[in-house]
Amino acid sequence: SPETARRPIRDLPDELISQIAAGEVVERPASAVRELVDNALDAGARQVTVRLLAGGVRLISVEDDGVGIPPEELPVALRRHATSKISNLHDLESVNTMGFRGEALAAISSVSETALLSRTQDQASAFLLDARSGELRPAARSRGTTVEVKELFFSTPARRKFLKTDATELAHCVEAVRRHALARPDVGFAIWHEGKLVEQWRSTLETADTADENRQREALDRRLSDVMGADFLEDSVAVAFKLGNVTVTGRAGLPDAARSRADQQFCYVNGRFVRDKVLTHAARSAYEDVLHGQKQPVYALFVEIDPLRVDVNVHPTKIEVRFRDSREVHQAVRHAVENALAVPRAQALAAAAA
Ligand code: ADP
Ligand code: MG
To answer: Whose CA is nearest to atom 13 of ligand 1?
Structure first.
């Protein structure tokens, strides 16, 4: 109404800014798990262990054996827009790390009780930082980082109310790790819930093997069957295709392996799991002639493209991307899957004719 008293414009307090921003980044425990595993991988981890209590609501602990954080930088890691991953626009445009916005730890720690425990190669001891109190003290662990997130959304009850049962939140957390695990057969992953091992995906790659293409392909196949189910390798064909600037690899399920739900469709762009209409549409259209009705194909597709031709800075969670030339990407993915399916299809036709 015209009677409304005008209030002065003021800067929001920092903590409130983080809590508002946290709404975009951390929707539920699985979003925090995803961000923390992103960080572990960016730190060069070879083994990532996730421990959860009550579906991640009471505790998320992500432990890695990566490069670690020196004690003087622990408080900086928690600050908004503080990152070690980019420092200028050029870095942003060619970013090859999972993170770069410097938002996740700030967001997570503003809506939980967070502690960072870390040790770099050069330190004689690890250090533990309690985010709330700011207390920093020596602690024990080997090289790497453990981030502990307790009582997620304890200070934002509106958000906490949207959480589902522990079992559902746990399933989302496992799914978040699964998405990472598919893309990184060189890293071992383990998920514990309430003290029980829920999933474990071991790495079959030695550091020395990572340059060997055959060993890499074997490791990926092994990881695909560990994560997608033992039948997946038999029920799918290898995808390997290049069109212009776009390379597509991975595996595409045979039409018979299709499901009623689209819950086994994994697309990656430069190693990052993405949800993208261009990619899912392209993949589905490759099955146009062989899949009828509402059947959903199964696949894990890895798209590699010049970082300058894709913008990952579209959304805070970076699950969406924007391609500079989406027609080219669509064609590449469609042809990649069509070509892969053509071989078993020709065999089936020949068998039927015989
Ligand atoms: P971003 O990943 O976008 O840089 P984050 O808030 O997730 O932002 O993390 C802030 C910084 O803290 C990172 O840039 C990195 O330097 C450091 N960091 C976070 N997690 C880890 C980790 N597990 N190991 C080593 N450094 C980490
Ligand atoms: Mg991050």
So the answer is: 83
